[in-house]
UniProtKB/TrEMBL annotation:
Alphabetical keyword list: Aminoacyl-tRNA synthetase, ATP-binding, Cytoplasm, Ligase, Nucleotide-binding, Protein biosynthesis
Protein name: Tryptophan--tRNA ligase
Organism placement in taxonomy: Bacteria, Bacillati, Bacillota, Bacilli, Bacillales
Assembly behavior: Homodimer.
UniProt record similarity statement: Belongs to the class-I aminoacyl-tRNA synthetase family.
GO CC entries: cytosol
Single biological process term from Gene Ontology: tryptophanyl-tRNA aminoacylation
EC number(s) per entry: 6.1.1.2
Chief localisation class: cytoplasm
Top-level EC class as recorded in UniProt: ligase
Length: 329
């Protein structure tokens, strides 16, 4: 049966291979069978300071990357979070249902706030807004990487809490986390997540990196001192990470990769991985350029937002009725 699927990505810098493998690839897969809502979550991005020109550029860029990666706006709703104001309104309501202690336990908040003198309150209540994003469409499935699992658990708790307090209303959503590739690691440190906010660009592959940069970054990626291409995340985190990337971008299994490179050293494996990535990203980059120069994006985003607003407005009206807000007229 067709399910409702929702997910979002922040426009807070260049998207990485981690975003692609952990999230976007699954968006493309799920849209074939399900009713999908894919947002660019600009309201989340501003929980840390954003330069206005960069925010605008990154917002368009993420939307264009969605389409370039294969999201089809004829069957999926693609839009900006801020174009559907009901997200912010339900976000506030969710904030009132969330306990301070729940937010204090969020590892993403701890990571992003640690060592900072001043932390915006938006960063703290970020997970309540994320819960609203999901619940406002009564989404069944939320495709995300592993780092979002804790936020999903809070969302499930908030849905249950609302239903318990005000009567059965929200669908309790399930995370959809890939088995391989749910946590793509940094190229310079196999114990850290690949992240667009890492100040060292050599630590990640950006989806818009030119082919030669991709090849160079892979050839320079840290590997352990052994020589065998085997999947063993506990003892060989770096090579295991590169194998996951290889598997996700080539369609081969980890075992097939291990067999292919048996008895060989890392050099040949890395060289081939560079080519696998170029073959994956070059067509995407070409489509991206076409979409950016076509001028079609603003209509696509307007249509996506209009459809999303229709659904969101209905849910919000139901929420308000359940909670006892006085109706207008
Ligand atoms: P964001 O923008 O940090 O990341 C977008 C998606 O990419 C996944 N991801 C990764 N997956 C595997 N390996 C990695 N190294 C990696 N880095 C990032 C993330 O898990 C995510 O799925 N809070 C969300 C945005 C959001 C959202 C939502 C998601 C807002 N509202 C509602 C789902 C539903 C975030 O910061 O993602």
């Amino acid at each position: 049966m067709a399910k409702k699927v929702l997910s979002g990505i922040q426009p807070s810098g260049s998207l990485t291979l981690g975003n692609y493998i952990g999230a976007i690839k699954n968006f493309v897969k799920l849209q074939e069978e399900h009713e999908c809502y894919f947002m660019v979550v600009d309201l989340h991005a501003i929980t840390v300071s954003q330069d206005p020109a960069a925010l605008r550029e990154n917002s368009e860029s993420v939307a264009a990357l969605y389409l370039a990666a294969g999201i089809n706006p004829q069957i999926s709703n693609v839009y900006m979070q801020s174009h559907v104001p009901q997200h912010a309104e339900l976000g506030w309501i969710m904030t009132t249902l969330t306990a301070m202690g729940e937010l204090e336990r969020m590892t993403q908040f701890k990571d992003k706030s640690s060592g900072k003198d001043s932390v915006g309150a938006g960063l703290f209540v970020y997970p309540s807004l994320m819960a609203a994003d999901i619940l406002i469409y009564n989404a069944d499935l939320v495709p995300v990487g592993e780092d979002q699992k804790q936020h999903l658990e809070l969302t499930r708790d908030l849905a249950g809490r609302f239903n318990h307090r005000f009567g059965e209303f929200f669908t309790v959503p399930e995370p959809y986390i890939p088995e391989v590739g749910a946590r793509i690691m940094s190229l310079d440190d196999g114990t850290k997540k690949m992240s667009k906010s890492n100040p060292n660009p050599g630590s990640y592959i950006a989806l818009l990196d030119p082919p030669d940069v991709i090849r160079k970054k892979i050839s320079r990626a840290t590997t352990d001192s052994g020589r065998e291409v085997i999947f063993d995340p506990a003892n060989k985190p770096e090579i295991s990470n590169l194998m996951s990337i290889y598997a996700e971008c080539s369609g081969m299994t980890l075992q097939q990769i291990a067999d292919r490179y048996e008895g060989q050293m890392y050099g040949g494996f890395k060289k081939d991985l560079g080519e696998v990535l170029v073959a994956t990203l070059e067509p995407l980059q070409q489509k991206y350029q076409e979409i950016r120069s076509s001028g079609a994006l603003s209509d696509i985003l307007a249509e996506g937002a209009e459809r999303a607003r229709g659904v969101a407005a209905q849910t919000l009206a139901g929420v308000k009725e359940k909670m006892g807000f006085l109706p207008l007229r």
